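Why do we bother with a discrete structure alphabet at all? Because it lets us treat a fold like text: something you can write down, compare, and reason about line by line. To make this less abstract, here is a complete entry for Tripartite motif-containing protein 2. Read it the way you would read a sentence in a foreign language you are learning: slowly, and without expecting to understand everything at once.
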Amino acid sequence: MSVRLSYFVEEETYSEQHYIESRTRELENAITSCKARIRAANQIVECGSDVEIVQATGKLNARMQRIINPSVTFIKPNRLEIDYIPSVVVDEDLEGLFGMLNSRVQSPDYIRTEEVISFRLSDGDDVVNCICPTSNGEAWVTIGWTSEIRLINRTGVTIKSCFISSDIDFIARDKNELLYVSCRAEKCIRKINQEMEIVESIVFDGFPRGLAITTTGSLLVCLPKSKTYFEYSPAHVNIVRQINPDTSDAINYGESGDLFSGKINSIYYGQKSTDDLGRESAQNTSRSQLRVSRNNGNEEVISARGSDGDFEEPIISARSGRSSKGTPIARAIPEPESEMSPFDPRGIACDRFGHVLVADYNSNSVHLLDHSGRFLRLLLTDADGMFGPTSIAIDEDGFLWIGGGNATVRVYRYIKADETKKEPMQRK
């Protein structure tokens, strides 16, 4: 038992240390890049002719702007506390002599939400299935089981729309602004260019639903065997397929019951009540859960797992950066409040600092997790107007989009980079 307690502390410490080291490497790379840009600018000014300097003015200004507004922002890590809880000794319970350990992660105070606007995209009661932000403050959305995708701005105005020949589940966008649209009825994914023309269709054996684009450009596709949640069977072997955009090579994960080489970083089951927010049990498999794992490109992939042990929920999100070494689930201890509805994750998003946001349909809430999948707090609840959230996304300007019931979209201000720099890093 003492070995198990020591292992728990070592793994918690390793996870936090690894995260800090990865962020440090990002900063070092950013500093090196800034120095190189400054040297290049100085060489042009010192050695170039007047004509060359004038011609290079635009590029020099762009380089200086990238230095003034760096793409990498350092934030103080969420403080991790590990408590030892002694156990009441019973003669028959030798294991009780050692007590237990609980870890507690402090919720970051720089994460605050401020609602900017909410609007309805139709007069019906359909849900907003997917929100896929673009690079200019707009987002592609799908509503209900229709064949239409819409491009809207943050005020809900429709910029343009396109009808595909089938009902639509999810939308993903790559760095070239190509759209990937999953059509479950036809068991295919449509690739659409900026002129809204279908340039390619990829057909599958299963029903393609959840989509994500990794930082290396690979397409991840959730392929459940059932068309709807209600047709799910424990006998189904649902998979995630990774498709390389350059070679069209495909890799299937999940056929043997494991996802992404079986390296599970963490599992999040949600909560039965706010009394046990964030508490986990390795034996608790009766609820839906989120699973953080790695693909062969060392990218962290977050998927939802059904209550029968297969990957039932067709939602997926990819984020880059860190690998970990089988990080155990943390146990957060909040103040007791009230009962919650069964965990029903419908949408996942990751912010630029590694936090995971989960749209919980049943409890009308958004769960905020840290980079290791540990619960931090409920970010938004029905008290904030949440109703049946089914889709969630963060755009490049840091605005949080949440779609839900009654075809409603809510837009929030989320993390502001300058607010993350107000206090120095502190750890206990």
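What the structure line is telling us, in plain words: The longest strand covers residues 114-120. The CA atoms of residues 25 and 31 lie 10 Å apart.
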